[in-house]
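User: Structure please.
Assistant: Input sequence and predicted structure:
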Amino acid sequence: MENVLRPLIVIGGSVLLTLVIGWATDRLLRKADSRHSETPLWGLLRRGRVPYQLVLCAALLRGSYDSAKVLEEHQVGIGRFLTLVLIGSAAWLVIRIAAAVVETTYTRYARASRDPARVRRVRTQVTLITRVVAAVVGVVAAAAMLLTFPAMRAAGASLLASAGILGIVAGVAAQSTLSNMFAGLQIAFGDMVRIGDTVVVDGEWGTVEEITLTFLTVRTWDERRFTMPVSYFTAQPFQNWSRGGAQLTGTVYLHVDHSAPMEKMREKLRDILRECPAWDGRDYSLVVTDSTPSTMEVRALMTAKDADDAWTLRVTVREQLIGWLAKEHPYALPRVNAADAVLPPGFPVQDRLLARRAHQHQPNHRADGG
């Protein structure tokens, strides 16, 4: 009877005590979260309740399993299994706690800061720091698990002796991966590109969506994703429209007739911008930038607070200006000029009349075949 009750008491008591302590801890964290709503720390810590309970249960079972005297022939294997579970759950718990602390720090900084560029920079650094911590904790946990096996401890001396050779071989084999990792750290702390920045890469513009230690994801305006190694951004030139501020100047080019009313076009551009919420009100202009024998090139310039608003402004101005010209001033649109040539000043009147008559009779002669 004792052989049955002892294991039930030990195992059942450990599981029950784990559930009670886990429930009490979660309740305390919930109360703390409701009282201190200004910080998300307590709510984020609640995400670690599963690894927390695993740590408690594994520690209690590991400490009391010897007294249960069940499956004594497998006692060493079960004890090592519980140790592995304890190490793994402890690493999981450390990662969750570190992520909660880092995320809370970022949230406080984002609320206090009024500079969006700095907030994006800190967001990028926080993301990479969290992943570095998770990688380091994972490596340490894996090493601790391996050291629980006697064969691995016995091989420690030989591993240390060959560490130099293995390091050289690993460095050569993982040269690309290591370069990407260092490039990721350089991007995070060198402020080259941040999450949320608008960039132009290989002729495609989009928003940086994710940055890891090895790759970077850019989401384009049509919802495509470009994934490329972070070393690209340290070795190749690229455009960062958010560097030094997200404000941009948009341009629209139109080809119009030489008789286009420039002053009225400037007034219409001003009216369009005043009615468009995407215009930030900083500046606008409309000037002639080039001319050809049949048309002239007009550039409309307007400012916006970011790349999305600049795009909205450009399409709005282009559409409404062309529609207004077609409706109010159709003569200002490009056309094929079939009118009589204007003679230069001082040309004799008699010669003008003769030239005009010759021009009028010319189609008849052609029709007669003369």
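The longest strand covers residues 279-291.
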